[in-house]
Amino acid sequence: MRRLFVALSWAAVMAIVPNLAACGGSDLNASAGPPKVIIDSDYNTLSDDGQLGVMAAQLQAQGSLKVLGITVVSGNQWLMQGVSDALKSVERLGVENQIGVYAGANYALSHDYATIQQELKEFPGGDGYLGAWSTPEPKSASDLVAPPDGFATHTKVQSQSAKDFIVESVKRYPGEVTILAIGPLTNIAQATSEHPEIVPLIKQIIYMGGAIDVPGNTTPTAEFNWWFDPEAAKTVLRLPIKQTVIPLDVTDTVQMDKALYDRVAHDPTKQTIITQLFKTLNGYGFDGKNGFETNPNYTTNIWDTLTLAYLMHPSFATQTVDEWVDVDTSFGANDGKATGYTSSPPAGLQKMTIVKRFDNPAFFDFYVDLLTRPVPVKLPD
Questions:
Q1: Residue 50 structural domain
Q2: CA 361 to chain centre
Q3: CATH number for the domain including 146?
Q4: Are 248 and 210 in contact (CB under 8 A)?
Q5: Beta strand pairing status for 300-301 and 255-256?
């Protein structure tokens, strides 16, 4: 039922997506400058991944962060759609010459649609969210969906593949690169499997992924990012690298309500293209957008942006535990399920930090501030 997929090459992506031809664990040698990050993401316009992109660009503009690049993987969307949205994102923010976009894996290592369909049929439940698998895979530019403000007009994908960019960046900055892993882990698994020499050179990986001691979302047991490519997750979690997990355990407790939504969407003194898109794309339930009626009790989880907040302010994590974490890759109800071990872990696992609770008020201030700053951002020379 399972079969190995080969990632869609960046060359194939460039041939069919508009404007996609090239554009412009360790502490050794740790830099005293701002943290250097790679954002490895199943990118979207302005849901959680896109919001993190905005926040990271604003932090770079103030000199607090150095974004080396955005590496895209299929997950929320197919690779081509994610790359297209990421290109528009950096162009919209005015950082297209400083933050490159790199196309990565289009398919999971070994979690194909036939397997997924059979599992969901035999073991129903969950919220039904399948990400890219919910839509036809785009085969040409005409299959892509433009953001509300249109496709990128001049920003193009880098000629280097995502996995090669990860390898090159880690070698260029040994002991300095943090990877924010906010999508399926296929790109990271491929980079570290093909070039194991980079593993001791990675400063740390911070994940949004897994459901350790709470139910899953896509299935009753599994969180979406790790469910989409469980083999990749199992591989990367075993790497001897400093790792921190932001699982559903904490994201279930960090909720956007109407008051928080209004702080971003409806402050009359801070209206930008970002706040307008935020309102357009996230207004359902709050403003009655997209056919939804307004619900005063509506809330939604906040996910990926917690990884960036934790990187910049580890004190935001008010409760953490250290456990060994594994992911199930067997066919069945637990495919993609994460398990934390407090003792006697299976061989090969790495002990890591799991965040359980966040300082929500402090995070909300951080979140609102960065999402409502002026755009385009003004980066330092």
A1: 10-254+302-371
A2: 23
A3: 3.90.245.10
A4: yes
A5: antiparallel
CA-nearest of 318, 330, 296, 322 to 111 is 330
- 280 in any annotated domain: no
Q: Tens digits of per-residue pLDDT, 122-180?
A: 999 999 999 999 999 999 999 999 999 999 999 999 999 999 999 999 999 999 999 99
What Å distances lie between residue 67 and 8, 26, 63, 274, CA to CA? 25, 19, 11, 19
Element (H, E) at 55: helix 48-61
Give the whole-angstrom CA distance, residue 216 versus residue 204: 25
Q: Give residue 60's identity as a one-letter amino acid code.
A: Q
Q: What are phi and psi of 281, to 5 degrees?
A: -95, -15
How many residues does the structure list for the chain? 381
DSSP three-state, residue 362: helix
Q: From 273, 54, 68, 69, select the one nearest 157 (Cα to Cα).
A: 69
Give the C-alpha separation, 38 to 185, whole Å.
Answer: 13
Token look-up 């999971």 returns 108
Of 137, 340, 108, 363, which Cα lies nearest the Cα of 254? 363
Any domain includes 97: yes
d(CA 111, CA 122): 16
Tell me if 317 is assigned to some domain: yes
Cβ-count burial 286-309 (b if 16+ within 10 Å, e if not): bbeeeeeeeeeebebebbbbbbbb
Taking CA 154 as the corner, what is the angle to CA 185 and CA 150, rounded to the nearest 5 degrees? 75
Cα 107 from Cα 141, distance rounded (Å): 19
Residue 356 lies in a domain: yes
Over residues 247-262, the pLDDT tens digits come to 999 999 999 999 999 9
Structure tokens at 2: 């399972």
Q: Number of C-alpha atoms within 13 angstroms, CB side, residue 28?
A: 12
Name the strand (E) or helix (H) holding 180.
Answer: strand 177-181
Q: How many domains does the chain have?
A: 1
Report how far apart the first and last C-alpha atoms of the chain are (Å, whole number): 53
Ramachandran angles phi, psi of 36, nearest 5°: -100, 130
